[in-house]
Amino acid sequence: MQDENKNIIIILLVLALFTGATIELSEGSTIVGVILFIVAAILISRMELRGNEGLQSSRNFLLIGGFIVAADLIYNYVNSSELGTLDSMVFFLGVSLIAMGTGKKDIKQLGEFGFYISSVFTIFYLIFYSFFGFFDIDFLHLFDHYFVLMPTVAIIKLLGIPIEIIATETVILYGAEPMTIIIGGPCSGLYSMFLLIGIVAGYSRIEKMEIKKTFGLLGFAVLIAYIANLIRVIILYITAYLYGMDTMMMVHTHIGWMIFAVTAGGIMYLINRK
Question: What's this model's pTM, rounded to 2 decimal places?
């Protein structure tokens, strides 16, 4: 029982650090993001998962992972661009494959878990942000408008805060002065959903969970993540109304991954209980 509690604590810390690292890399400090990634990686290696018959070690993983890391770094260097969300996940995928190619159990376990997280996130990102964009499928704007902006605006109005929708993803909040707020991109909560799906899928695969139970858990997890994101956006509205845009932007960088980590941690706790 003590080992299970230790495992749950480590999972909670990993979720907080890993999600925070992803958001810091894309929106905040790159240095902070890298540090959080390293600490999360160390903690994952301390997890004692029951399943240890995962993907076999292979030099092919080392070569493929090394190529992915090098290609990602060279691409960003040549284009003089900073690591974004997709870049950080591709980089993490390459590092995970390198870890899987080693013979040491702890490092291999770390690599396998990271492989599922990063590959699932990358696939969903390419589908929703690249594939849909290439074919002019307007899913993201519609999702932001109908599933994020409208529900949160309705709740804010019930709280007596003056707010008005002026565009598909834009509102005006009337605080000390009118403030224009765009609800899009990270505010959709899709990044958090992609991460959560990857985390659950990786944990399920390593722990040999039943497929039916895994899909049920994924559906429940996505629903909870969606609700948590609505709470996050509402908190941002209230912060902007009470303290202004500057304070809201500061809160915006950090509160998302904190709320998501707590939410996902609760879901992982349920996994351990089952």
Answer: 0.80
